[in-house]
Amino acid sequence: MIRFEHVSKSYGGTLVLDDLSFEIAPGQLAVLIGPSGCGKTTTLKTINRLIETDKGDIYVNGRSIARLNKVELRCSIGYVIQQIGLFPHMTVEQNICVVPKLLKYSKERCQKITHEMLELVKMPYEEYAHKYPNQLSGGQQQRIGVLRALAASPPIVLMDEPFGALDPMTRLVLQEEVRRLQQKLNKTIVFVTHDMDEALTMADTVIFMEKGRIVQMASPDEMLRNPASDLICSFMGKRSLNNQHLPQTVADIMRDKVVTVTKDHGVRASVELMSRKNIDTLILTNADGSYAGVVSVDRIKRSGKGYKTVEPLMNRGYPFSYEDEDGQVAFDKLIDGGVNYVVVLRRDRTVAGIVTKTSMARSMAEAVWGNGE
Ligand SMILES: Nc1ncnc2c1ncn2[C@@H]1O[C@H](COP(=O)(O)OP(=O)(O)OP(=O)(O)O)[C@@H](O)[C@H]1O
Ligand SMILES: [Mg+2]
């Protein structure tokens, strides 16, 4: 939807944007974050050509914006600026309809848009449409700022620290509202903030900038787990999870005490073993100790008659993962597979353990609260 290719910009010999390349997919909410002066606003303004770049290309919907008509481009991109920026001498309705009017929509159509927009944020038309900005609270003004950017239904909306001046509660409410509107109206949003909490709650993708460069572009989860620099860590403050203690591999979330028997184990002996250990499945190995499959007590009860060993009753297709894989692999198999556990193997295919919901929860709890030592 929006693609930067080697974009640079300098002011009087100082490089402000330094070879930026990235892409934001349609319907995504991307948050640009970084210290003051790192180039967030400049990046945003190059997208609607309020600032022209020196080098590189920016594509919107596959078309280079350098070749598009500026006015048309701006009408297709909503923009919410750093300060609220409503026109003080215009009513709420006139403010909302700035772009629709530029597009020469009829008076009726503008009125209809204002109705719909105000409805989105539960501010009744009759009560608010004819008020002036100074008759509204800060949060209400900011809502109108957002509605104004949405009024001509542009597919893309740029928002530059839209909530910077608001109290924390109003800010939370508006974050929610923008997220909801974005999903409902399926917008692609580029959102600038220097508040990491805001970035992590709102973003599909966080783009962290420093001195005109991208230091990291990642999902909020990924950035929390693997912040790419000390500066990013300090932006996260206490939200940053401590990497050392965070479970990451399958081995970190498994239980390693498991009962295994060879696949030629007797049927009756297996049932007795399960009942003694109070488990309902057994992990089976080949004679050389490598993993073979699992057998459940249910299966034995259903079809075990007439068999001597458990081998013919064995399930070879049971979900497993390797101990050095990302923990999420086992997590997904456990949750999506609707199974009670996932078998964990070493790379030599011997059995290392199992991941259960309990073993997973326990390792997560230890990471968050410590292991009580
Ligand atoms: N018109 C200009 N002329 C010269 N330098 C500029 C101009 N506009 C911005 N800059 C410089 O470019 C750099 C990036 O500015 P930008 O406004 O993009 O930062 P920002 O990341 O949005 O910062 P903030 O978080 O404070 O809003 C800054 O060092 C700024 O001083
Ligand atoms: Mg800025």
CATH topology of the largest domain: Rossmann fold
Instruction: Compute the separation of the termini in Å.
Output: 50 Å
Class from secondary-structure proportions: alpha/beta
Residue fraction in strands? 15-25%
Ions and ligands: adenosine-5'-triphosphate, magnesium ion
Corresponding CATH architecture of the largest domain: 3-Layer(aba) Sandwich
Number of strands: 16
Percent of residues in helices comes to 25-40%
Instruction: Tell me the radius of gyration.
Output: 29 Å
Shape: elongated
The quaternary state of the protein chains shown equals single chain
How many helix segments?
15
Neighbour order of strands in the largest sheet: 6-7-8-3-9-10
What does this protein structure show overall?
The protein folds into 2 domains: 2-242, Rossmann fold (3-Layer(aba) Sandwich), CATH 3.40.50.300; 250-369, CBS-domain. The two termini are 50 Å apart. The mean pLDDT is 89. The strands form 4 sheets. Strands 6-7-8-3-9-10 form a 6-stranded mixed beta sheet, sandwiched between helices. Strands 2-1-4-5 form a 4-stranded antiparallel beta sheet, with helices on one face. Strands 11-12-13 form a 3-stranded mixed beta sheet. The protein contains 15 helices and 16 strands. With 373 residues, it is an alpha/beta fold. The longest helix has 18 residues, at 168-185. Bound molecules: adenosine-5'-triphosphate and magnesium ion (MG). Residues 40-41, 82, 160 line the site of magnesium ion.
Attribute tags:
373 residues; alpha/beta; Rossmann fold; CBS-domain; 2 domains; six-stranded mixed sheet; four-stranded antiparallel sheet; 15 helices; binds adenosine-5'-triphosphate; binds magnesium ion
